[in-house]
Structure formats: C-alpha cells, structure tokens
Specification:
Radius of gyration: 21 Å
Distance between the termini: 26 Å
Number of strands: 19
Oligomer: single chain
Strand order of the largest sheet: 2-3-6-7-8-10-15-16
Strand content: 15-25%
Bound molecules: 6-O-phosphono-beta-D-glucopyranose
Number of helices: 16
Structural class: alpha/beta
C-alpha cells in the first residue's frame, strides 16, 4: 500500500452550474440553451432539455444533504444571470431568485460545505444575443458587470470564493468556431473579439469585486480549461503547431488573467493575420490592473496537435485558428470510449508544473475533472447502487499525479470532481453521467454511487491508500 496525503485545508468537492441543475422554474429570462432547446429540441440528446435539469430549484435541501454524505467540503455552482436579473438593462434583481440563492448559500454553509460561486457558465441571456450580438458587443460587458455587482452586493457577506467565468474558451469555440453552442457561427474574427470581450468582462468584474466585496477572506478568480498540447512528433512543423495551439487555447486567457497581458506572440500573429480584436488603451489598463487572486483549472483530457493537414487557402472561411494546427486523436491512446476523450492523468502534473514555473505558482485548484459514462445502469448492482469502479480508478490516477506535483511545491489547494449529482449538460443533456450521485431523470430519485463512498473516505482521511491492484491497472489501457 502507498499512502498519499494532501494538505489539511484541501478543498475536496465537486462542481456544477445553475443552468445544469436548477431547472427553469420561475425563471424570467431564457438563456441561450433554453432558447436553443425551445427552437431545436432535436439538437439535444433524446430531446431532453434544461426545463427540469436535476430539479435543484426544488430539491436543493435534499441534494445538499446527499453531497454532505459524499464527503464534499466545498461545492462550486453558478448564479444564473437569466434568473437573478429582472431587467437586464438596469440590472435590477428578481426577489424570488434572491431568496432562492440566499437559501442555497445558507444551506451549504449549514451543512459545512463551502459555497464556491461562479458567475457565467456559458449561459448568456438569449435576449442579449438577439438584441446586441451577445459577447461580440461591448455593451453586453457592461450588463454583465451589473449582474456581477448584484451578486457581490447580495451574497459576498457569506460567499468568499468567487469566479468570473467558467471556460471562456468554450464560449468562443462553441458559439463562434465549431458550432456546438448556439448561435453556432463559424467566424474567426468574431471569435477573436469574443475572447477579448470575455477577458475584459472578467477583469471588470474583478475590479468591481475589489470595490464592494464585504468579506475579509474574499477572493476572486477565473475557471479555465487548460489542456496541454502535445506535438504529434518532434518534427518542427508539429512542434510549431502545438505551440500555437497552446497560445490560442491556453495562454490567451491564462496570461491575460494571471499576468494582466495577452501573450505577445499571439497578439503579433493575430495582428499579422488582420483579425486582432478592437481594444483601447484604457481597457488594456483595466486588464493589466485586475488580475485574478487564484485560478480554477478544468482538466479532462490532453490535446494532441499536429501541423494542419489542409492548405490555409482551402479554409471555407477567411480565418480560423486551425490555420496553424490540427488537433487529433492519438492512435492507441487510453480512451474513455463513451465520451471519446483520451485519459491521460499525468497531464495534471504537467499543468501544475507549468503554473509553478511560468505563472509564479499562483494558488489554484482543480475545478473540474471527471469521467462521463453512458448507460451507467449497466453497472447497477443487486442493491441498486452503481458500482463505478472505473470512476474511482480515474480519480485515484489523477490524484496520484496531483499529489506528486504538490510534493514538489505546487500551490494546488483543492480537487473538485465534475460533478456531484448527474446533471444536464447542454446538447449532450444526460448522455454522459459524471456524478458521485446518480439521478433517475424520470422520477428525480437520487442515489449514491460507489464512488460517493470512496470520495467520503478520501475527504475524511485527507488522502488515500493506493493498492497493488491500483498500480497494476495504472497507465494500462482500459475501455468502457
Ligand atoms: C465541462 C463543462 O467542460 O464539461 C460542463 O464545464 C459540462 O458544463 C462538462 O457539463 C461535461 O460535458 P459533456 O458534454 O461531456 O457532458
């Protein structure tokens, strides 16, 4: 047996978001997914939309009790802009939403769970897209800051841990490059502007937070999906492709959020290609002066990059970042075949080393990591529990590498699994189940999986013992 013990105050928890759990009950505005589902239900897995989600709006007290049973000491969720704000232009609040979020926050605290609150989890109110073009328009940034201000005013007396966005790069890619989020555009130049605007919005929210936060322990950060880009070979074209992919996918938000400046090399490249964002000196000064206190890192799978396999001239649109790189699936990789993602736990160690070396070891935590599996009923045992040994192995392997980095001085302060209770996941809806707790989407009955008991043990012992059997399986191909 090998023991790995984590720091005392470590966050052991899980992440989710408002739109993926609450359901649309009493919500005045539709967000882009609510609208997309109303118009195009066939785009969603089994035509299951966000209306009910996992019924957190009604079930939150029972759900939080289950989370406690799974040993979570901290949970990230988000406040829905489309729920909290009544008049999107004025930024006035909806009283039912205020009461709801107050009750949720109080319930977490009463159960000894630290509420970690994020503001924007892809869920732009759709009216702002239709009226203004959403994140392409700087007016929307101002409206987001009004929403953020209300959140800090109303809840920062009890909430000390805040994040401005979840995975802003997914907003850019999903909505403006690769068509997996509404409005499904393919427009490289617009995508570049959206990236900039999201960063500016984050920096302005941070500025506002520091003006009005009521909590002496209050801290604010951003949650980024950071997947290292590994070159397909040592050929210089592949190395260059992986480098540019990294600049675009990782360093863009990372540098701007942590160092207060966009990577120079990326700015030069976008300028040369005539797609650089519109910015002003004043805005760049805001970004410079409002860095994050800490970072959340979502990590699911590595990225592998090779030189683009089509000529830049064959691009159907004027400009795409893929002019410089192609991501691909490595032949023979360990796969979670349900989700189609490679499993590569060592990347967590490399992410930690990168933060340590290149980002002044800024405090950070794993804000999402997890394994989505379809048809989990396959693993139901006679007692009605899902025996998700694959998830336990997956968590152990990632913790093994994270622990290694912490031993070497990484300032990682927590690990949040995606997710506590199986939740609605955009167009994938309930296809991939990630939770420690399963939900029957027809009855809303919620049941602890085997991994929930494992997680509770982990929290209670601030770590775990890794068996011979674990090391036997470690790094070997396993498929589901
Ligand atoms: C994360 C997102 O990147 O992936 C979540 O932050 C999302 O919102 C999760 O639910 C899982 O996505 P999917 O598509 O595998 O269900």
């Amino acid at each position: 047996m090998t023991k790995i013990i984590f720091p005392k105050e470590f966050w052991w928890g899980a992440a989710t978001s408002g739109p993926q759990t609450e359901g649309r009950f009493k919500k005045k505005h539709a967000n882009i997914f609510d609208y997309d589902f109303e118009k195009n239900p066939e785009r969603f897995w089994h035509e299951i939309g966000p209306d009910m989600a996992s019924n957190f709006y009604n079930d939150f007290r029972e759900d939080i009790k289950l989370m406690k049973k799974a040993g979570l000491n901290s949970v990230r969720t988000s406040i829905q802009w489309s729920r909290l704000i009544d008049d999107l232009e004025e930024g006035t609040v909806n009283q039912d939403a205020v009461d709801f979020y107050n009750a949720v926050i109080d319930e977490f605290i009463a159960n000894g769970i630290c509420p970690v609150i994020n503001l924007h989890h892809f869920d732009l109110p759709v009216d702002l897209l239709h009226k203004y073009g959403g994140w392409t328009n700087k007016h929307v940034i101002g409206l987001y800051v009004k929403f953020a201000e209300q959140c800090f005013k109303l809840f920062s007396d009890r909430v000390s841990d805040w994040f401005t966005h979840n995975e802003p790069m997914v907003v850019v890619e999903g909505g403006y490059l690769y068509q997996f989020h509404y409005p499904d555009l393919v427009d490289g130049k617009l995508a570049v502007q959206v990236a900039y605007n999201l960063q500016l919005a984050s920096s302005l929210a941070i500025q506002k937070f520091h003006e009005i936060n009521q909590n002496p322990n209050g801290k604010i950060g951003i949650v980024l999906n950071l997947s290292p880009n590994y070159p397909a070979s040592q050929a210089k074209e592949d190395i260059a492709a992986a480098h540019i992919a990294d600049l675009w996918q990782n360093q863009l938000f990372m540098d701007a959020s942590v160092k207060g400046e966009f990577p120079k090399e990326l700015v030069e490249l976008l300028t040369k290609d005539k797609v650089i964002w519109e910015s002003t000196k004043e805005e760049l000064a805001i970004i410079k002066n409002n860095k994050v206190d800490r970072l959340g890192v979502n990590y699911y799978h590595p990225n592998r990059a090779q030189k683009p396999y089509y000529s830049p001239n064959s691009l159907a649109v004027d400009w795409l970042p893929n002019k410089y790189f192609a991501n691909y699936q490595m032949h023979g990789a360990r796969m979670n075949v349900d989700k189609g993602w490679e499993i590569y736990p060592r990347a967590l160690y490399e992410i930690a080393k990168n933060i340590q070396k290149n980002y002044n070891n800024i405090p950070w935590f794993v804000s999402e990591c997890g394994m989505g599996v379809s048809n989990e009923e396959r693993y139901l045992n006679e007692d009605g529990q899902i025996d998700d040994d694959y998830r336990i192995q997956f968590i152990q392997e990632h913790l093994y590498w994270l622990h290694q980095a912490i031993e070497e001085g990484s300032s990682c302060f927590g690990f949040h699994l995606w997710t506590a209770i199986d939740c609605f996941s955009w167009r994938n809806s309930y296809r991939n189940r990630y939770g420690l707790i399963s939900v029957n989407i027809h009855t809303q009955e919620k049941t602890l999986k085997k991994s929930a008991h494992f997680f509770k043990n982990l929290t209670e012992n601030s770590g775990l013992e890794l068996s011979e059997e674990f090391f036997d399986k470690f790094n070997k191909t396993f498929r589901f």
